[in-house]
Amino acid sequence: SVCGKACGLDRALGDPMIEKRADRFCFVRAADRKTAADVRAAHCLELIFLDPEGEEVHRAEFKDAPSLDKAMAAAEERCSPRAVAWAPAAGGPPDAAGKLLVYAFADERKESAEFLKVLEDRAVAALHDRLVFVKTPWKKGGDEARRWAVTQVPALVIVDPVKGEVLERVAGRKTPRELRALLLKALAKVEKK
Fold this sequence. Notes:
The chain is α/β, with parallel strands linked by helices and 193 residues long.
């Protein structure tokens, strides 16, 4: 509640429908101007969901317990681990329409499988909507490896689809937080242009 008025929010938080999800959220009432400004609250009774890294993942208007439940479900979905939707590697670059291309080079080793699994982590999954993932089989000296200057696997090459230039490149084991930071850095480079 941005304006400090409960307007049924406290009652809704006690609803059994909400209690089943409540342990997965931390609730903060933005009743003062500074907190409201920090989360860029626009009006009273606005629900703003942040992920553990402090990034906004969902925004909705509070009306009643069912609307709160629906908003919580949407926020959970955006913060849950999610399988990567791989674009086909063959036939040239996929249509990225305002998204970054992320080429993932991997082989059959366990290290590559673990690396690709990190892309499904909730910290990275929150960015999936802004990215197009292309899984590229790695062959030492292969055309794609030479094109993107990949010398070892597992590796990611993040490309601006408009200019075709490499924004970021990483190889070897990375944590979800490290990959998230790298992806955000690449996204920021494109947004600055």
